[in-house]
Automatic annotation (TrEMBL):
Cited SUPFAM superfamilies: Acyl-CoA N-acyltransferases (Nat)
EC main group: transferase
Occurrences of domain N-acetyltransferase (ranges): 1-170
Protein name as it appears in the record: GNAT family N-acetyltransferase
Any one GO molecular-function label of the UniProt entry: acyltransferase activity
Keywords linked to the UniProt accession: Acyltransferase, Transferase
Length: 176
């Protein structure tokens, strides 16, 4: 397995990974209509997203052979700063991390997280935080094994007309 920077050419496979991951992990937590609508127009959106140059973000993919089996995005905590105020001392954020369910529990998620946490540390972004869909036992187990713990912060996000409750976890000092 290899971890590398994502490119616009990875967009289709990233959408496939995200869609499969959401359908496996969030079935019962979000409506079937939300899960069914995931891949619509997503590839074009990912191509545009990956083509933009953003110095305060990194997008990574995990490859096994010629296939993308996972991806992750890391940046500054967007609830605490913006591109003009982000810098050393601002918390970092795991913006997204998805691994195709066929590759769960085989090291791709940990490898992506290791590289992303390393990158966040290089930028001076600390502590590292992640928002997780409330009730997602699969996500919570992954994050807690990595060294994250719930910190009490909560918010809701809107996705395809659905209101999704989320809770925040923070990486314990010295974890990972």
């Amino acid at each position: 397995m290899r971890i590398r920077t994502a490119t616009p050419a990875d967009a289709d496979e990233m959408v496939q990974v995200r869609t499969a991951s959401w359908r496996a992990a969030y079935d019962g937590l979000v409506g079937a209509d939300v899960l069914a609508g995931l891949p619509e127009e997503a590839s074009e959106r990912y191509v545009r997203y990956l083509a933009r140059k953003r110095p305060l973000e990194t997008e990574l993919v995990a490859e096994k052979g010629p296939y993308v089996i996972g991806f992750a995005a890391f940046t500054f905590d967007r609830d605490e700063a913006d591109e003009d105020t982000a810098g050393p001392g601002v918390p970092g954020e795991v913006q997204a991390i998805y691994v195709h369910p066929d590759h769960w529990s085989r090291g791709a998620g940990r490898a992506l997280m290791n590289e992303g946490v390393r990158w966040l540390a290089e930028q001076g972004f600390a502590p590292v935080r992640v928002w997780m869909m409330e009730g997602s036992a699969i996500s919570r187990r992954f994050y807690e094994r990595y060294g994250f713990e719930l910190d009490g912060a909560r918010k809701t996000v809107e996705l395809s007309g659905a209101t999704i409750p989320c809770e925040r976890l923070t990486l314990k000092t010295g974890a990972a």
